Amino acid sequence: QVQLVESGGGLVQAGGSLRLSCRASGRTFSSYAMGWFRQAPGKEREFVAAVDWSGGTTYSAGSMKGRFTISRDNAKNTVYLQMNSLKPEDTAVYYCACNPRGIATTTPGAYGYWGQGTQVTVSS
C-alpha cells in the first residue's frame, strides 16, 4: 500500500555533497517513521539513519554522525538524507524504508516497505 521512490544519487568526488530524497505515497505519511539503509557490493545491508513520525527523534550510524543528516517534509511526503564530506567508502546503493508504526529504529525488520534504491558513487 505504501510506495517509496528514491532520487538524488549520482557520481561525486570525495569531499563533495549529495542530498537524497524519498517520496512516499499515502495520506498518512506524517505518522510514519522513515529510515535509510545502504548496501555495497559484496557487503551486508547497513543502517544509515532514521527519523520518527514527528521529526523530533533521529538516529544515525556512528561512522556517519556529523556528516549525514536525516530530515522530513510532511507537506511533500518526503524524507531526505543530506550527505556531506563524502568518502569513497560511502559508495553504495541507498534505500529508504517506511515503518507505519511511527517509531524510529535501526532494526530492518521493523520497516514494512522499501524503495528500489539509488546509486551513490564517490570517486577518489
Write out key terms for the chains shown.
124 residues, mainly beta, four-stranded antiparallel β-sheet, 0% helix
Question: Would you give an account of this structure?
Answer:
It is a single chain. This protein is mainly beta. The protein is built from no helices and eleven strands. Strands 2, 4, 5, 6, 9, 10 and 11 form a seven-stranded mixed sheet that branches. Strand 5 and strand 6 form a beta hairpin. The protein is globular.
Radius of gyration: 13 Å
The helix-and-strand class reads mainly beta
Oligomer: single chain
Number of helical segments with 4 or more residues: 0
Secondary structure: elements and pairs:
Layout: E1 4-7, E2 10-13, E3 18-24, E4 33-39, E5 46-51, E6 58-60, E7 68-73, E8 78-83, E9 92-99, E10 113-114, E11 118-123
Parallel strand pairs: 2-11
Antiparallel strand pairs: 1-3, 3-8, 4-5, 4-9, 5-6, 7-8, 9-10, 9-11
